[in-house]
Amino acid sequence: MAGKLTRSNRAGWLFALPGFSLLFLFIIIPFFFAFWLSLTNQRLVSPNPTEFVGLKNYSELLRLSVLTLEPERDDAGQIVRDANGEIRYPRVRTITRSGDFPEYRGMREWFRWQSGENAKVVVASNVVFMKALTNTLTFALFIVPLQGGGALLLALLINQKLRGINAFRTIYFMPVVISIVVISLLWRFIYDGEDGLLNNILAWLTFGFFEPVDWLGKSDTALGSIIAMSAWQAVGFHMVIWLAGLQTISPTLYEAAAIEGASKWQTFRYVTWPGLRNTAILVLIVITMQAFAIFAQIDVMTNGGPLDSTQTLVFQAVERGYGRQDISGGSTISVILFVMVLMISAVQGILTRERT
Amino acid sequence: MATLKLKDFRKSFGKVEVIKGVDLEIGHGEFVVFVGPSGCGKSTLLRMISGLEDITSGTLEIDGRVMNDLPPKDREVAMVFQTYAIFPHMTVRENMAFGLTIARASKQEKQQKVAEAARILQMEHLLDRHPSQLSGGQRQRVAIGRAIVRNPKVFLFDEPLSNLDAALRMDMRMEIGKLHEQLDATMVYVTHDQVEAMTLADKIVVLKDGRVMQVGTPMDLYHDPGNLFVAGFLGAPSMNFLQVDVQTVEGDDAKVGNAALKPINVAHKDRLNGSGKAILGVRPQHVEAAAPGEGMLLGTVEFAERLGSETVVDMVLKDDSKFIAAFNEDKVFEPGQTVDLVFDPAQAHLFAPSDEVETVH
Ligand SMILES: Nc1ncnc2c1ncn2[C@@H]1O[C@H](COP(=O)(O)OP(=O)(O)OP(=O)(O)O)[C@@H](O)[C@H]1O
Ligand SMILES: [Mg+2]
Fold first, then answer.
1. Residue ranges of chain B with pLDDT lower than 50?
2. B95 pocket-lining for ligand 1 (C-beta < 6 Å)
3. What mean pLDDT comes out for the span A69-75?
4. What's the average model confidence in pLDDT over A305-327?
5. How far is CA B37 from CA A5, A69, B234, B347, B354, in A?
6. From ligand 2's centre to the CA of B42, what distance in Å?
7. What is the pLDDT of residue B356?
8. Which domains does chain B have, with CATH numbers?
9. Which residues on chain B are in Cβ contact (under 8 Å) with A263?
């Protein structure tokens, strides 16, 4: 018995070998490699030898401080205001470039807010990274309910015995099969500021009253546009996962609910949704992880612009690592991203844990 | 409690007619059992009453009110399914209170009704468990509890005990019987277990291919089956059928016999068709062994099953037909041995010849 077991075990490992070696080669080794690189000053091509720099890369990305600016006062001690009546403050760079405050050296203003007479200014050592971070988080925050909820809605609609329902399934799933690069290119035309499809439709719906918007060219619409398009693109994929989940719910449970007089909503609340629990966890985690990896749309559609309003972490990692040949900087971003996704997944795992 | 009336009930799935005109009346507090072979439409009939399937034609009345187009909840019925259909993510208490939750009843009402149902089913100690922590029998009890809490006019059961093992099935069968007495409710019960049908029913409805074959009390059907199908369907082992020739008919009796059977007089009940042929039904339990040479039938033993309380013997008669005898004592039979058999003609049944004999067995 034992002999047979070990023999078949060895065969098992043998079968797993090709898969494992690929995983090892392209996932595990690069991961440790990135971790190591993030502690050095490695560049893509460089005549200088690589040096170990400790956590310098991390502090360069993550350093944040809050400065308090007091209003400028004239000789009489009155607050100086400009023509619009706004209070005048000393410029941030008088601090960040001053020799008196070496701890703020090289930092730039990220954003500020008013606190009484004073202004509080958040300065960051790498403002672009901070923008990429917040954009990525915003993207994830919106895409999870949009994509997950939209997919569930479609799945519920499609999970009916209607004539021609297969055509709808195919249509909703189609964007998933098409390359994201192609889709991004197409949506660039849709979002075009001059003669884009979206502007045309909106103009037509409002009888020409709608002012054309350059959706991807304005910093307050660019990220939203990319969120909408991304939600649309992958909604079909998650629809299929929800559908699989719906099929696992026993039809007699619905019949029991019908006999007890449950309304459509009550049936969803008491039968469907609890039955989709595990599917929901899967969808949640998959969408979150995909959201944090957003890259292709940015690369094709906006290049992170305008005014860094669509910078994302992976885009930054690639841009630094290859665009600016700063491999160690790119690696550092990757490691930070990894830690974030790990933590979020862990938190989701804990929050959705079975409580019985 | 309620009365039910089914008038010319029909159901088609697409072009296939599955229920082909069923007329049935069910009285207050009656326990009615639908039996029949697999696929005969028992479940479909029950689901039409519950409202889970719509009624193609005919009318359904509950307490004199036509219910055809009402959704399930407005028919005031409760249903217990073979697969329990209890909600896995809810506790027993929540499951039983489900109907009240749906109706937004007060906490107090829920508490009280669930407690009452749990008391009836003796499962107070299980109320806070989840279904995964229950045995099959306990799960089915939860489903029954949910039905009780609903306080329906009619209880519908679709093979509720089929997923349970034999011992548990017997316990639950008795409990359902007790429940019926206690609640004094109208119940319609689908099963293909004869014992369930015989022990529980006030009235059995035998179905075949979407038609009612016979309706009556269990003993009526057993002792006086109206047709070959019912005769062959009820009772285990099932009734023996002998192809006999009708020799004479005098008043209520006909004299029948064949190569294997010495002529006997049997009540014909106006079921002969004048062809001179007939089928004689004899229950295996109604046969007794006789002294050699004094039997009405002579059988050659093929094999015997000794069950302790009973001995079931498969035999071949002189005309090569099969015959089963069940003796209610433990007896040894050797294959090849011949046995003389007698039975009381008053307990035999005469039917018109038909090709149904084949399908029954
Ligand atoms: N939804 C349906 N669509 C088409 N045909 C159906 C459907 N439901 C049942 N039938 C058919 O109707 C007939 C009766 O089915 P039904 O389920 O009522 O049988 P049953 O007597 O309950 O059998 P069983 O003892 O196996 O449960 C069967 O021939 C079945 O194939
Ligand atoms: Mg059935």
1. 358-361
2. no
3. 81
4. 86
5. 48, 89, 11, 25, 19
6. 6
7. 55
8. 4-230 (3.40.50.300), 237-356 (2.40.50.140)
9. 102
